[in-house]
User: What shape does this take?
Amino acid sequence: MNIKYKLGNTLHQISFCRKREKNNISKEIEKLRSDRNILLIYDDKINQNITKQVFEDLKLSGCKIFTLKSEGDKKNKNEKFLFKIIDLLIRRKFTKKSIIISLGGGVVGDVSALASSLYLRGLIYFNIPSTMTSIVDSCIGGKTAINYKGITNSVGTYYHPKNVFILEDIFQNIPNREFDAGIAEIIKCGVIDNEKILNFLKMNKEKIYKRDYKTVANLCKQTLQSKIKFFKTDVYENDKRLFLNFGHTFAHAIEMATEVNLKKDFIRHGEAVGLGMLAEIYYENRSKGKIFNLVKDLLKTYNLPIKLDFTKIKINKIKLLNDIYKNLFLDKKKIDKYPRYISIKKIGSPKVKEIKDFDFINDTILKVLF
Ligand SMILES: NC(=O)c1ccc[n+]([C@@H]2O[C@H](COP(=O)([O-])OP(=O)(O)OC[C@H]3O[C@@H](n4cnc5c(N)ncnc54)[C@H](O)[C@@H]3O)[C@@H](O)[C@H]2O)c1
Assistant: This one.
């Protein structure tokens, strides 16, 4: 099962690879005019059999393969990791026709893609996502980034993977928390674009829990197709791509506030997006209504938080409230002084609006997040 889409004159492909198909990646490499140098950047937490399986596939291409072991988690999404990759590319004399392949979640993917776009102004990049968030969201769309000076994704570029490979084995190996976190981005696409995705999540709960391949792959395919629709004609996010940020204005504010306060990875990106969606629906409607409850029920069904969990952390609530408030104003979508968010009054009809009612921000944080 493949999804193909064109950006300008370039064809991009997402391949869902079954276990029985052994050499998907090397076959695609053979189609390219590369200099036959590959750097495989892999997340060390992934089951080593999968890393080995990818390595064996790459060997079939006859290319020279270099590897770089790395780690996910927000704390590693930084300039140190970025320049470790770039230093290796220089040392190994990589050219513009060399290939970088990331095998990891959103962190390894975003940083590898950024290095791919910067080194010699761009070499060939493939992505093999290994968490649900990266499978349904970060593996496509071309946003690359590191977090810098405490600001989420403050340094980045747009650079698209030529190919994405979604491996059947990965689905079984994603830890529960990483699996559930990605469901939040699926709910997001359902709310902004396609109610069928929300119904699919409701109807197929058992099969999704059990990670039945056909069901989960089908769900991912629907979500990826929805995401492609939004960025394909608006890569640089001037118009409808902005809708994909539903939940993210509050999510990034929460992520930055908890990271600074806790100095550890308290909340996953997807978990923050779930909370952010609730906050943005509440802020827009000034109350909890039908859509709020629909999203809340789906988050609960898929074990996602519907409040910040203060049992897990010791934190000064007033400081956290102030930090979330302050961080909203670091919103990267803002064009004037007001942060922007995605308003949802009806499923499938998102709108971009500004947060102007400052008094209601605190009410939203207190009533929805705390
Ligand atoms: N570029 C985009 O469009 C985009 C979209 C959404 C999110 N993001 C970014 O993605 C990041 C979040 O992605 P994520 O949730 O995948 O985070 P992550 O990459 O940090 O992965 C989460 C954790 O799971 C581990 N892990 C990864 N794959 C595993 C596997 N198969 N088995 C066991 N452990 C595994 C990682 O080491 C890490 O500890 C954030 O930085 C976010 O900003 C980017």
